[in-house]
Design a protein that fits this description.
The protein is mainly α. The protein contains 6 helices and no strands. The N and C termini lie far apart (117 Å). The model has no long low-confidence stretch (mean pLDDT 76).
């Protein structure tokens, strides 16, 4: 085994025990064992690929040309790209035409105008807000806010137009207190 005798192996293990301690040596051995197992699996997989893909013992020429394998892979890739191109052209053909887009746009514009008309009358349908632009929604919001403020200002203005309430005994008492100070 690598030209190492039993005494040298014993010395290596002894120094490993002294340096790393009894707690870490089993964990290190486990990690080393896993690494060796992965290396062996990779080696077996590689030999399997070489035997299956590059070397063919039943053929006239037992060793295949690796460039032929690359050419086969390129041919498969070109088939896949051709299929993807066909799918893309079919999807493009299924896409709406200019006249269909124009008709849809006209319907949406008519819906916006109807929503604006409904918004001006005080009725705001929920579906129309999704199709409105930001400036249209802001203008509608400003109109609604101005209408609410006007409604709230009406009772205040009406109260200001009314005559002041008649002064009673409590009002006279407060006037006396102010005057007496």
């Amino acid at each position: 085994m690598f030209g190492i005798g039993g005494f040298e192996l014993f010395l290596i293990l002894l120094f490993g025990f002294l340096i790393f301690g009894p707690d870490k040596l089993p964990a290190m051995a486990k990690t080393l064992g896993k690494a060796i197992a992965k290396f062996r699996n990779a080696q077996e997989e590689m030999t399997g690929v070489l035997k299956g893909e590059v070397f063919d013992k039943d053929a006239d020429e037992p060793f295949k040309n690796p460039l032929d394998a690359l050419d086969n892979a390129a041919a498969k890739a070109s088939k896949v790209t051709d299929q993807a191109k066909k799918a893309a052209t079919q999807a493009h053909e299924k896409a709406e035409s200019f006249s269909a887009r124009k008709a849809r746009y006209d319907r949406e514009r008519a819906a916006k105008k109807a929503a604006e008309a409904a918004g001006a009358s005080g009725v705001a349908p929920a579906a129309s807000t999704a199709t409105m632009s930001f400036s249209e929604r802001k203008a509608r919001y400003d109109r609604e806010r101005a209408a609410r403020q006007a409604e709230q200002a009406k009772p205040v203005a009406e109260a200001a137009d009314e005559p002041a309430p008649a002064a009673g005994p409590a009002a006279d008492a407060s006037a006396d207190q102010k005057g007496g100070e």
